[in-house]
Amino acid sequence: MAGAVSPAPAWHEADADGAVEQLYAAHWRSLVRLSYLLVRDLGTAEEVVQDAFVAVHGRWNGIRDPQSALAYLRRAVVNGSRSRLRHLKVVRTHAERQPVPDAVRGADEAVLESARRASVLEALARLPRRQREVIALRYYVDLSEAEIAETLGISRGAVKSHASRGAASLREALAHHLTDPGEALHD
């Protein structure tokens, strides 16, 4: 048939249960990864994502364009992560602080990789909230500037600005990880 339009993916026509189930199967991991980058706790990240899916399921009939459900989920995950961070800040303010042991570096590459990853997460955590969110969405979830702008409710120009500033701050904070360790031996 000439001019026939291909049908939309099956989940667009499905009921709330089926649609959310298909979204869950396709995007659970990436949404947990996004939340984890923001809250730095796997259990909390999983709870945030689960809450987002429950919210989408409950509001499925009110979603005008089922294709925007993923953007809605991302926005819910970012907002839920923010909320959890605010809550944790209040809890930490009133709880005794436990000393954090220094990272132990060994000769084993797995240990070094773990230390590098921890350094990146620490540097990411020190970024201002909006920069951290943009960096996580751009480099860990691999969203375009337009998708990030939609997810966070900001302009594409703001996305570019936050990404640029965040990347510059990360480069500065992680400069010691970006140099060749062999260079120090030749000095």
The helix tally amounts to: 10
Work out the strand percent: under 5%
Instruction: Give the biggest beta sheet.
Output: none
Give the overall form. Answer: globular
Please tell me the total number of domains.
2
What is the top-level CATH class of the largest domain? Mainly Alpha
CATH architecture descriptor name of the largest domain: Orthogonal Bundle
Average pLDDT score: 79
* Secondary-structure element string: HHHHHHHHHH
User: Helices and strands: which structural class?
Assistant: mainly alpha
End-to-end distance: 72 Å
Nearest-angstrom radius of gyration? 20 Å
Keywords: DNA-binding, Sigma factor, Transcription, Transcription regulation
InterPro entries: RNA_pol_sigma-70-like, RNA_pol_sigma-70_dom, RNA_pol_sigma-E_actinobac, RNA_pol_sigma70_r2, RNA_pol_sigma70_r4_t2, RNA_pol_sigma_r2, RNA_pol_sigma_r3/r4-like, WH-like_DNA-bd_sf
GO molecular function, one term: sigma factor activity
Organism: Nocardioides islandensis
List the main descriptive attributes of the protein structure presented here.
2 domains, single chain, disordered C terminus, Rna Polymerase Sigma Factor, Chain: A, Arc Repressor Mutant, subunit A, globular, 0% strand, disordered N terminus, mainly alpha, 187 residues
